[in-house]
Amino acid sequence: MSTQDTSSDSPFHHESPRDEAPQYVLPLVVRIEKAEPPARTDALETAARAVLVMLSDERSLGEGADAGEWARAMRDWQDARIRKVVRRARGAEWRKASALPGITVTGKSAEVRVFPPVPLDGWPKELAKLQVSGTDLDDPADPGAPDPLTPVLWLSPELDMSAGKAMAQAGHGAQLAWWELSDADRKAWREADFPLSVRTADPAAWRELTLSGLPLVRDAGFTEIRPGSTTVVADHPALRAR
Q1: Which of 60, 86, 168, 212 is packed most tightly, with the most Cβ within 10 A?
Q2: In the chain, which residue ranges form alpha helices assigned H by DSSP?
Q3: Could you report the per-residue pLDDT of 59-100, keeping only the tens digit for each?
Q4: Distance between alpha carbon 159 and the CA centroid of its chain, in Å?
Q5: Are 93 and 130 contacting, i.e. CB atoms less than 8 angstroms apart?
Q6: pTM for this model (two decimals)
Q7: CA 98/CA 240 separation, integer angstroms
Q8: Measured between alpha carbons, how far is 24 from 36 in angstroms, rounded to an integer?
Q9: What is the pLDDT of residues 92-135, one digit of tens each?
Q10: Is the separation of the CB atoms in 111 and 23 below 8 Å?
């Protein structure tokens, strides 16, 4: 599948025939305790890794008799527009969310739990009541330059996104990179525990990145930003070398 904005069947394009399919969403919940909220960049990176962990989990793979328990839901989700929604939880809410089937991925300070896709109007009640807004996080220190030898998800310097929105967009970028990789490169990335960085691109480099041929995400414009906005460029070394 093409990941460029000229492709009419891109799951991230704002005019997609995938809209005609039943719509599903991939839920992600970030743990935000009042006393110790995670750092923004770490939350973004952990969310992106959580998406990759879900995509590559054995329960998400296979067909027929060999299908994992989440494979049908993952297939239905990927056959429609690729939607992700990030909600926040703390205390008892986080414990209840953690009891549902899913995978918790931890970063340096962040915890993100990703769940199998659900219909847009079929959220489990434990997740449906969680807030989407309020995921405004900060970095207590400059995250520094990314490792040039590992994948970097470059955020647009032209857009102002909440942490929750940016987490979903980083997840989109990671997913596009995953789809574009060879089986060997996917295996190597997974075995390394999906190292990656999320950084805001330098304004001077942003246009070059968007024209580089690397996978890019264009937002559908459901929340926060206008439709068609380029939000992320997925810069994986294996794709950069093509």
Answers
A1: 168
A2: 40-56, 71-79, 91-98, 125-128, 163-180, 183-191, 203-210, 237-240
A3: 999 999 999 999 999 999 998 788 999 999 999 999 999 999
A4: 17
A5: yes
A6: 0.90
A7: 37
A8: 32
A9: 999 999 999 999 999 999 999 999 999 988 999 999 999 987 67
A10: no
